[in-house]
Design brief:
412 residues, Aspartate Aminotransferase, domain 1, Aspartate Aminotransferase, domain 2, seven-stranded mixed beta sheet, 15 helices, 13% strand, binds (2S)-2-hydroxybutanedioic acid
Length: 412
């Protein structure tokens, strides 16, 4: 007769709710309504609500398939596929000349892997008293830094009444409360979830502050080329911090959105240091951390991305794909704003078109979000964040009417 243990060592665990973005996907999957729409996770969809394999990725897949040899499933070096992470570094920083000796790049499991590797490394190397995260930020930033065990502090970012950046408060708080050695996580472009970025002038003031206070800037760069359709524009903040020559910086770079390689988990962590010696020591530490967690990263997507980044015709073709995605998103922003204005939906909706990137932080309240979900089967995050990529010319009217009805109902 089989028996079971009388007691579980795990029953005393506290219950942890599922991540809000993934929980929404489960609720959506369980909903049987015909017109249901999900505007949760930041994933690109075409105008038929279908995932889009970038035409350039398809061409690169062919090239990679042809070139595959018996070594294609071999282990990569611990820091990953060098043709990929060097091309990723050059894409991000532009030509660095002799400064490349001061940069360490590691191929990671997407942006999350890069954020996590960076957090573990910075905790060990800098022993920060705190990490500063924007309020709000991507939900997983909290998770990543909590798991690493560094105290999390929030710097003001979103001003709900202005529906824009709370720049003065951001500077004031960091000025008065941050201490040397603290890490500050910055979104390189297309801030997630608000879609609001600092202006170039404001970035300069943030860089001054980092320098003056000895804060360590750690950029999360998930939307390079995807935000504006222009790589140089989207890389501006990172390149500006680098070009000052006075700051050491780290960057977590993702290829999930800009190459549509979501499930392939492709990213890179870059650390720009003050000397080649520091870079070489940091490389040793990063390699140990990587070895202890994944040993070496997977190969296939890195080969695809390296092929795109280093083949001029494919690179040009990828720029067109980026244009296609970013302009469809801009178009959807315009249509949603115009639809709400023509419905006379109470409130001002101009921020939908001034925000950039994958998301709009609509200003819808949790109560309105709940009404939209219950009455119209449209799923968005409680924070009011909408993934604009989920809008299409076919569903936009339905979504605008759902928002309109919920805003009116909550005010009645
Ligand atoms: C998002 O914010 O929706 C995306 O970055 C997907 C994710 O992993 O959370």
């Amino acid at each position: 007769m089989s028996s079971i243990p009388t007691h579980s060592s795990f029953s005393a665990l506290n219950a942890i709710p599922l991540d809000s973005i993934y929980n929404l996907k489960e609720l959506f999957a369980a909903d049987k309504h015909e017109e249901k729409v999900i505007l949760g996770s930041g994933v690109y969809r075409d105008d038929n609500s279908r995932p889009w394999v970038l035409p350039t990725v398809e061409k690169a897949e062919e090239a990679v398939n042809k070139a595959q040899d018996s070594g294609r499933y071999e282990y990569l070096p611990i820091t990953g596929y060098a043709p990929f992470h060097t091309a990723a570094r050059d894409l991000l920083f532009g030509p660095l000349g002799e400064k490349v000796t001061r940069v360490v790049s590691v191929h990671t499991l997407a942006g999350t892997g890069a954020n996590s590797l960076g957090a573990r490394f910075l905790k060990e190397a800098l022993k920060p008293s705190a990490v500063w995260l924007s309020d709000p930020t991507w939900v997983n930033h909290y998770n990543i830094w909590e798991l690493v065990g560094v105290e999390i502090k929030k710097y003001p970012y979103w001003n709900a009444s202005k529906r824009g950046l709370d720049f003065e408060k951001l500077i004031d708080q960091l000025e008065t409360e941050a201490v040397p050695g603290d890490v500050i996580v910055l979104h390189a472009c297309a801030h997630n979830p608000t879609g609001v970025d600092p202006t170039k002038e404001q970035w300069k003031i943030i860089a001054d502050l980092c320098e003056k206070k000895g804060l360590f800037p750690f950029f999360d760069c998930a939307y390079l080329g995807f935000a504006s359709g222009n790589l140089d524009e989207d890389a501006w903040a990172v390149r500006y911090f680098e070009s000052r020559g006075t700051l050491e910086i780290a960057v977590a770079q993702s290829f999930s959105k800009n190459m549509g390689l979501y499930g392939e988990r492709l990213g890179a962590f870059h650390l720009l240091t003050a000397s080649a010696d520091a870079a070489s020591k940091a490389k040793g530490h990063l390699s140990r951390l990587q070895r202890g967690q994944v040993s070496t990263p997977p190969t296939r997507a890195a080969r695809i991305a390296a092929t795109i980044l280093t083949t001029p015709e494919l690179f040009q073709s990828w720029l067109l794909d980026l244009q296609e995605m970013s302009s469809r998103i801009k178009n959807m922003r315009q249509l949603l704003r115009d639809a709400l204005v023509s419905l006379g939906t109470p409130g001002n909706w101009d921020h939908i078109t001034t925000q950039i990137g994958m998301f709009s932080y609509t200003g819808l309240t949790p109560e309105q979000v709940a009404i939209i979900q219950a009455d119209s089967h449209v799923y968005l995050l409680n924070s009011g964040r909408v993934s604009i990529a989920g809008l299409t010319t076919k569903n936009i009217k339905y979504i605008a009417e759902a928002i309109d009805a919920a805003v009116r109902k909550s005010q009645s």
